[in-house]
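[Automated response] Your request has been received and processed.

Submitted sequence:
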Amino acid sequence: MEHFFAPCPRGLEGLLVEELNAASAQEARAVHGGVAFGGDWACCYRANLHSRLATRILWRIAQAPYGREEDIYRLALQQPWETYFAVDSSFRVQTTAHHSPLKSVDFITLRVKDALCDRFRAQCGERPNVDTRAPDVRVQVFLAERECALYLDTSGAPLWQRGLRHANVEAPLKENLAAGILRLTGWQPGMPLVDPMCGGGTFLLEAACMALSRAPGLERVRFGFEALRAYRREVWQAIRNEALGAVQETRFLQLWASDKDKNAVRATRHNLRAAGLEGAAEVTERDFLDLAAPADTGILVVNPPYGERMGELEQLAGLYPAMSGVLKQRFPGWRAFFFTADKRFPKLLRLKPARKTPLMNGRLECRLYEIALVAGSNR
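Generated structure:
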């Protein structure tokens, strides 16, 4: 059994455990910022192909205590890198530290690179090239307070890069965070879903792919594991072909999106069309205050502007109470979810959240507020 680690947006670790178990992971365990798990290479391939929540799938090749920089150099030098990837592959080393007593992360990165090159010279008579922009192989170093772990990245580019979003808007939501928010709302394929501030349409794209059983990794050109000596092409092709066979034909999926920004509407339509999902959703140019419920019940999910897209805080303070009136009058029986970093949000909206879930959007601390809508006041 190999040992892996899947980082994810903070707050989604529990959901990622469930997802990895479905990919036949063993001993999946949620930790701060991700999930540690075991499995064979088929499990690794499935996790890369099917995970909507993970950022990467990292293969742990070594773990040991350390006290100073040279301990980490020796740990890296002892690893049989030449058995993991070919000398003609380019590589990059990246270091992350959490409560490490060492002063320079950059120096650790340099020492691990030196150790890797020294090992290849000793074993092969030559060293691989470093490529910091588009390497064949990515080496990840993680420093805890007393332990160092070395990983090889089996994903390559981050898994949230699905290859579906061609037109972008300012500050787009990453796909794995959007997928996690949809999971937290309890939305299921077949349920009406409305996104009235759609931006580039990330919620819509994720929901459509879920409903049509489109694995999030199907559009990727290449995964990191393909550059490793452990790669088994026939196993990967069988897993990918099975996922291709599960994809359903595009149809209308009771997905509605709108935005008052013409560029956002244009971007969402373009992204749906480029992904072959044009008929799956209805997208209109509309102000939130002009919304009408398209069904008796459903899920309304919103990533409202909190400074980035609208600017002045005074504008937001005036917008939220008006949004509250729309929700109470036109969406009784629905459940609304607002994802925002604005901690004034519940007070300004004047609706009491039934639940609030802490989530991290990169380094930005956010909350997902759930509001059960009933006719009349909900305070």
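Summary generated for your ticket: The first strand starts at residue 2 and ends at 7. The chain has eleven helices and 14 strands.
If you did not submit this request, please reply to this message.
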